[in-house]
Amino acid sequence: MSTERIMELIEIRNRTDKVMSALLWIIISIITLGVGGVVLMYLLIKRRNEHIKRDSELMDAIIEFLDNESKERNIDLRDDLASLRRLREDHTKLERGINSVVWPILNLVLLGLPMFFVYYLLSRDLSAHDSINREYVHTMNDALLKMDKGRVSEPLTVPKRPSSLFMIIGVVLWIVTLIVCFRTYQGARMLPGGIAQGGGLLWGVQVILRNTSSLALIIILIFFMAYWTYIVISDYNIHFKRQWGWEDDLVDRLRR
Q1: What's the distance, Cα to Cα, between the start and end of the chain in Å?
Q2: Contact 44/104 with Cβ under 8 angstroms?
Q3: Does pTM surpass 0.90?
Q4: Which stretches of the chain are DSSP H helices?
Q5: Dihedral of the alpha carbons of 207, 213, 219, 220, in degrees to the nearest 10
Q6: Cβ burial 39-72 (10 Å sphere, 16+ → b, else e)
């Protein structure tokens, strides 16, 4: 039964572990003036939550399989199973998930500011999950070897990112850009004819974009947001593909 469950959880990965095109979503977000970014945030959070859930269930199924096999074949895996259960318990902290509805809405209302915190959470959780995953696979390999089933390929670590620093830089850059743009707009309204012309959204945008300082800050902010978006999407893609590698190996070992 546990073997069938393992196979089932591996088969559904095409629905949970969605590989996304970072470049395509960056272009969509820019073209739609950030609206596409709201949809992207929803998808990023959703795939994070679904992958963590699938992986937790896969850990449980593997532990059950090893436990049953060790008892049937009278193989001592007590230390290995204890380590796997400890790692599974550590993984429980990630199961709480991130709200995939509230955060995208807040991001739209607050003009992209929450994005930096959400990306921080996504990067932090991936790093923690990837670390647990690699240690879990290493311990699982020790158990498989004792059962004469061979080893699965152990995944390389996902690149470590300074997510806390990225979040601070993003928030500071967002606040500075907002202040400069607001002062540029207010300053233009105080000029002769400014009050008469001001008030309209189009006029305000034109004023801001004609100012060198505000335009430069907007461009820098967009590039930074695009860069971090690329990193978050790509790192999850890398993790998914590396996990699929050892999962495929595991299927082969279970069929022996």
Answers
A1: 16
A2: no
A3: yes
A4: 2-11, 13-16, 22-31, 35-73, 78-91, 102-109, 114-146, 163-190, 194-197, 201-210, 212-254
A5: -150
A6: ebbbebbbbbbbbbebbbebbbbbbbbbbebbee
> Which amino acid, 133?
N
Cβ neighbors of 172 (< 8 A, separation 6 or more) are none
Per-residue tokens: 170: 């993003």
Q: Residue 28 contacts by C-beta under 8 Å, 6 or more apart in sequence?
A: 36, 40
* Tokens at 153, concatenated: 């390929």
Closest CA to 153 of 40, 26, 44, 249: 249
Return the sign of the alpha-carbon dihedral for residues 239, 104, 169, 94.
negative
Q: Which residues of 229-240 are buried (b: 16+ CB within 10 A; e: fewer)?
A: bebbbbbbbbbb
- Say how many C-beta atoms besides its own lie within 10 A of residue 21's C-beta: 12
- Phi-psi group of 213: left, alpha or beta (phi > 0 → left; psi -120 to 50 → alpha; rest → beta): alpha
Q: What is the pLDDT of residue 193?
A: 54
> Whole-angstrom Cα distance, residue 71 to residue 73?
6
Q: At 248, which amino acid appears?
A: D
In whole angstroms, what is the distance from residue 243 CA to residue 39 CA?
A: 26
Q: Which residue has the tokens 């004023």?
A: 207
Residue range 190-229, pLDDT digits in tens: 665 554 455 566 777 888 888 999 999 999 999 999 999 9
Which token pair is 166?
């990225």
